[in-house]
Amino acid sequence: MDRNSQQRLTKIDSLRGLALFGIFLVNITFFTTSLQTISFGVELWNGWLDQGLMLLRGILIDGKFILIFSFLFGFGMVLMQESSRRKGGRFHRIYTRRLLALLVFGLLHGLLIWYGDILTHYAILGFVLLLFHRCKPRTLLIWSVALLLVVPVLLTGASLLSPGAGSQAFEPISQADAYRMGIYFQERDAAIYGEGTFFQITAQRINDYIASLFNMLVFYPQILGMFLLGAYFCKQRILHDADGNRKIIARLILLGALIGFPLQVMMSLAKGLPTWVEAVSLFVGAPLVTLAYIGAFARLYQNSRWNNVLNALSRPGKMAFTNYLLQSVICGLIFYGYGLGWFGKVAPAAQMLLALFIFALQTAFSIWWLRRFPIGPLEYVWRLVTYWGNPVKRSGQDVSHPRQQRGTL
Q: Which Pfam families does this UniProt record tie to the protein (predicted)?
């Protein structure tokens, strides 16, 4: 692998590491707060620091870093397709096995560890993404934009056809009723997740997992749209050559700053917005901010000073699959009854500090592991299934000799 290729892969690993941390800052709240309480929008902590941090998180982080992960999923499919073509492999079969393995991991994760699993959704939508793997870049871009706009367009159209419905926010009940319901579910889940047995927790987790699956359906067009956008970027080599695509990247940053960011501020600060306005903020604003983040990251990565800082994220990013599942295991041991039982007892500010501390430990662990092995432990299992017994064999060298090879996709 030449130096430029290695640098490109390290850049993608670093971006994946950043996304992993941003996702964790959001996910940790779901380990200590009822899913229904979050759905009702109930604020459990009234301190100015906690409320301020949650406001900033809503504007800057919520919904953006999971979209970066989605973008990289599509980006990675094209990288894998190109690698398979160079080696004469059958990409369709290889990628199908990869998705089936991901689906199994996702089901085990969602049913036995944490209900908020995203792997199941990625596996399901990955089969749809596979239908686009032969498409030209222009076709990918058209489909991506159409999918990203489908939900806000439908909701805006519904509001125009029925003005009364468009004046309603997403919550169909009063704020007082929503608060009471949110507190009830938080107390119920604290008794189960925080103090219950493993079997009681598992039963509730399965219920929440099923609810979460249905809740995510409305986001499927957005996730698939970001898959396709990542595939488009990879085929067009936009991130491969950030210097050569400075104008495109500058436009992405400008769109995020002028349109996406104001929409996110409005959605976080304003109350009682019409449904279509919230939909536009959520399904248009968030992707625009996400693309601005990706563009800014690519430009900063070209700077030698920032490059050294951002490269530190490449280690946990290279082991993102392992680290994502490990985060769930660690949080289960901290917040659930079979561990410390801290469910509902950790304020948002402390949650973020805890997430930072855990991620720092994961970074140190990833550095230690990758000095000894070419890929993470769960990445190895995933590739074992994907490549049917040849997980990282390259140029006659196998993973049994980890010091012989360092590159990975």
A: DUF418
For 295, the token pair is 């563009």
Q: Contact at 8 Å (CB) between 64 and 223?
A: no
CA 76 to chain centre: 14
Question: Which residues in the chain land under pLDDT 50?
Answer: 1-3, 165-171, 394-409
Which residues neighbour 97 within 8 Å (Cβ) at sequence distance 6 or greater?
Answer: 385, 386, 388
SS3 397: strand
* Rounded-to-integer distance, Cα 50 and Cα 70, Å: 29
Cβ contact 375:321 at 8 Å: no
Q: Which of 323, 266, 377 shows the shortest CA–CA distance to 69?
A: 323
Residues 309/6, Cβ–Cβ less than 8 Å: no
Q: DSSP class of residue 222?
A: H
Domain ranges of the chain: 3-249+308-376
Q: Please give the pLDDT value at position 393.
A: 54
pLDDT in tens, 65-113: 999 999 999 999 999 999 888 887 789 999 999 999 999 999 999 999 9
Q: Are 280 and 152 in contact (CB under 8 A)?
A: yes
> pLDDT tens-digit profile of 309-360?
889 999 999 999 999 999 999 999 999 999 999 999 999 999 999 999 999 9
DSSP string covering 278-325: HHHIIIIIHHHHHHHHHHHHHHHHTSHHHHHHHHTTHHHHHTHHHHHH
CA-based Rg of the chain, rounded to a whole angstrom? 21
Q: How many CB atoms lie within 10 A of CB 388?
A: 11
Provide the terminal-to-terminal Cα distance of the chain, rounded to the nearest Å. 11
Give the predicted TM-score (pTM) of the model: 0.90
Tokens coding 180: 């009471």
List helix spans (H) across 172-238.
175-189, 198-216, 220-236
Closest CA to 22 of 73, 62, 72: 62
Question: Is-contact 288 255, C-beta < 8 A?
Answer: yes
Q: What is the pLDDT of residue 172?
A: 60
Partner residues linked to 394 by β-bridges = 397
User: What is the per-residue pLDDT across 157-168, written as a single tens digit (0 to 9) for each?
Assistant: 887 776 654 444
The answer for residues whose C-beta is within 8 angstroms of residue 312's C-beta and 6 or more apart is: 14, 17, 363
φ, ψ of residue 397 to 5 degrees: the values are -110, 145
342 and 399 in contact (C-beta within 8 Å)? no
